[in-house]
Structure formats: structure tokens, C-alpha cells
User: Fold this.
Amino acid sequence: MKILIIEDEPELVKSMVLFLRQEGYVCEVATKVEEAIDKIVQFEYDCILLDISLPDGNGLEVLEKLKKQNKNDGVIIITAKNSPDERVKGLNLGADDYLAKPFYLPELSARVSAVIRRKHFDGHNKITFHEISIDLQGKSVKVNEEPVELTRKEYELLLFLISNKNRVASKNAIAEHLSGDDAELLDKFDFIYAHIKNLKRKLQEAGGKDYITTVYGLGYKMTT
Amino acid sequence: MKILIIEDEPELVKSMVLFLRQEGYVCEVATKVEEAIDKIVQFEYDCILLDISLPDGNGLEVLEKLKKQNKNDGVIIITAKNSPDERVKGLNLGADDYLAKPFYLPELSARVSAVIRRKHFDGHNKITFHEISIDLQGKSVKVNEEPVELTRKEYELLLFLISNKNRVASKNAIAEHLSGDDAELLDKFDFIYAHIKNLKRKLQEAGGKDYITTVYGLGYKMTT
DNA sequence: TGGAATTTCAATCACTTCTCGAAAAGAATT
DNA sequence: AATTCTTTTCGAGAAGTGATTGAAATTCCA
Assistant:
């Protein structure tokens, strides 16, 4: 699950990333409106944490843009301005939740998880795909009821492929999704090969089938 | 043992938390329906104290949600509305007990302990997990009938892990659970390593097995 | 205050992730 | 069908991050 943090206070960002990462999320950061818009236009996030007061403008612009694009990433507005006015504005613009600074990190994490759950899974906490079932709460994967041990990256990769099932996920998209902010990685999407390989192997060992098909020259796909 | 208090009167909440904490419970608070639902979906509690009249809706929604999720946390409904009507509704929805405001704190505590007892142990006061058995009354632990001396933190940790069995408990979550309200636990979940280590060692010395598995990068888990 | 419990710290160890090169497989061109 | 070029696979190992451990420092309580 991937989160975009739009916030300019470095210390706060740092602690948020640390905490959320610990909970198993992949985090990306934008510190300016412009940067944020670039990212939301280009990519898709499971949850966006949006600070309203940013150095180069009002965070709500990002939210507007998002809605104009018909993206339905879950949005949690975060701001020190706890005036009802801002709150209403945000929620009217389609934000999913609202959190006032300063906040307690576990509180944030709980809301993130709630938003993601609501957006993606209608109250179910499990995703299934053929014999594969993913418990999003427990962050565990089973094939034919047998647990399969996946690393964090493998888990994220599987989640990404399944949520793009029947579509080809380009290596670029995968790299972008897996690598958070590590810009250097993006060019060299070599490392994906390794993860794909291992994921394929583990799933195959457990289920007998090769669930992931390579689309030559394009990327990878999981077909229903 | 962890209790979720769903109640919006700050004074009342404060006194409940104080009292129950004294009795050895770990308390968490939600003041709104939405917040409460987020919490019950995500975590598991041994007992839920549920006020019916909440600022953003009816507390019974929480109970419905709980039952829909097939969770069997013990629920005690607490409300000023002592009408038979609400009482029946709540109990029909599967609440375990009912308490009218204003109440006497020891009375509350007695009911909590009764609910927990019923829920976990059908009259007995024990939790078991493989060869481990925990006597909640005496706060003592045995492995293969042999007593194991645990410190308070170790005891709470074990309880926490067991009540989240088959799920990964992140270090964040553990830190939060063990340290109550200390907000600044960011970089400081170091101490968990120590407790985990000691708990593992003690259990292993007693039972021969390593009951606690580390999930690299995420946390710890006890698997049935 | 004294002893136990808890937390911090630093060194070491383990696992994951990334890199790289060589080899295999897939398309394209002749 | 053979050749060539591109893309993918695979394995080995380096780099980076997280986990473990023992000991020391601190805090807590009786």
C-alpha cells in the first residue's frame, strides 16, 4: 500500500515516514503544491496525507486537482488550522478524513488504515485471487490455505499486480510503486527482475501454477 | 487485557481510565462512532465499553459493525438512557452487559472482569495457547504446567501477542500498547527488543519451543 | 536505600534488497 | 532458418537495513 505525504516540515515528515513504514506502507513525499500535483497526476496512491499550508500555495489545490482527475485516492487532510471552515472546505472537496496537528502517530496510522480499507475493500480485509489470499490486516499471504512467507517488497509487488489484474503492469509502474522516493532506482528497474523472480518462485512452490505472466517488452500481468 | 472505552464525556473518560488502569487494564479511548469503528475493525479488545449517545451518531452502530465482522469482543453498553427499549436493542445486538449512568466505578470494574472472564474462559480464568497457559486472575503464566516468572511488561507483551495471534504486531503497536500514553515513542521502540528477547528466552527455557516469530521489517507474531 | 525491572546503547549478526554479468528466451530482420 | 538485437532470467555477492544480544545506565518500587 502506497502513501503520498504532502507536508513541508522535515521533522514531521521524517517521523511520519518512519512510523508508517514500520506499519508496512510504502511512503513518498512531496513538499510543495507543484510537486504534489505532478505526483498525483502521474501516479496512483492508496492514501494521500495532505497538509493544507504549504510554502507555495494552499494544499486544497491538490485536492481539487485530484477530484478533477477523477482519481479516488483516499485523502486525509492534515493541518494546524483546525478552524471548522477549513475542515468543511476539505470535506466538501471530497476528503475522506481530517486530522489536526499536532497528532498522535498511531492515530494517524489508524486513520490511514481505515481510509484504505474503505476505499479498497468495502469492509473486507482480504483480497483473493485464484488460490491466493491476502490478509491485509495480518499482512500475510496464503496459497491454498498454506502460508507463504514473502518479504516486504514481494508482498507489495504481489498486491500491486493483483490490484492491476488483467492489465499489464509496466516495469516502470512497478518500479515507481515499489521504490518510494528513491529516485535513483527508477532508471534502473533492474531490481524488479529479482523480485519478480522470487515472487514467482514462491507462489509457484506453494500453488503449482505460475500466476504471473511476462508480457514481453511491456511488463507483467496476472490474469483472472 | 485491553479495553476500548467509547465515550465522549472527558471527565468520565478520565476517571474510567484511571480506575481501570489501576486494576491492571490497558485502556484506549474513542470519542466518536467513526473513530470507534476504525479501532474495532483494526484491533481486538478484550472488552468494549460503549456509550450509546455519541456526538456523531448512535453507539449501537458500533455494535452492529462489530457483529458484522464476527468479532466477539465483550461489550458492555453504558448509557444514561436507561429505557428498557435501548437496553433490549443492545442486548439483542449481542451486547454482554448493560450499565446505567451514573455508575459506581468498582461496579464497572466488576462487570468488565466478569465479561472478560466469560468471553475468554467460560468461567475459568485462563487463556491457553499451545503449552502456554495464562491465569489472568493471578497474572501468572505456566508452560507445560510449570510456572514461568514474567515481569509485568513481559506479561503484557505476551498477552498482547497472544490476543493478536496469527497477526503481525508491529513494533509500533507493541510500543504503544506497552507504554500507554507516552507519545514520543518514535525512535524509542528499542526497548521492545529487550522485552521480546527476555520473553522469548523465558518461554523457550520452559517449553522448548520458540513461540514468537519475528517478521522481518514488520514486527512479531505468534502463530497457532 | 537496595534490588528488581525497565530502558538505553553499541557491537554483532541476519536478512533483505540491489547490483552486475552471463546466459537464455523472445522478437525482428534478412 | 539463421543472425542479430532486445528483453528477461538467474545466480552470486555487496550494500544496506533491521534484529539480537549483553552489559550498562536509569527508573521504579517496596
User: Anything to note?
Assistant: Residues 193-194, 196-197, 214, 216-217 of chain A lie near DNA strand D (CB under 10 Å from a C1'). The longest helix of chain A spans residues 190-207. Residues 33 and 61 of chain A are 8 Å apart (CA to CA). Chain A has a mean pLDDT of 82.
